[in-house]
Amino acid sequence: MIGIVSLVLACCALLAIAAALERVRAYRQAKLARLISKHNNPEIARRILHREVWHGQTKEQLLDSLGPPATSTILPEPAQREIWHYGPRGGGRYRFTVTLHDGRVTGMDTNR
């Protein structure tokens, strides 16, 4: 009797996992479709969905990819330069820093 109950519970757990995986797949497909519509480029949408950062990426694409930074610094001269910090470690240190010039990514650094 215990074996049958265990088998039924295992089957229910597998069904719940399969349903959760299907919801995740559907969410990612819908998000990809929104990103393709927004950026008019399937390759850029795919890169954003995978949370990539690349040279030349726009500020809007970076926000879609990683979200807003934990902190940022704006340096106005000579060209608009911003430094975005992600993943606070404490003590003013961050896991990842992105530099933007005139609204485009020009540098990135993983602060190990």
Structural domain count: 2
- Could you tell me how far the N terminus lies from the C terminus, measured between alpha carbons in angstroms? 55 Å
Q: Show unreliable segments.
A: none
The shape is elongated
- What's the arrangement of strands in the largest beta sheet? 1-2-3-4
* Biggest sheet record: 4 strands, antiparallel
SSE topology:
Blueprint: H1 2-39, H2 42-49, H3 59-66, E1 71-75, E2 81-90, E3 93-101, E4 104-110
Antiparallel strand pairs: 1-2, 2-3, 3-4
Helix pairs in contact: 1-2, 2-3
Structure description:
With about 110 residues, the protein is of the alpha+beta class. It folds into two domains: about 1-50; about 55-110, no CATH class. It has helices at about 1-40, 40-50, 60-65; strands at about 70-75, 80-90, 95-100, 105-110. Strands 1-2-3-4 form a four-stranded antiparallel β-sheet, with no helix packed on it. α1 packs across α2. The mean pLDDT is about 90.
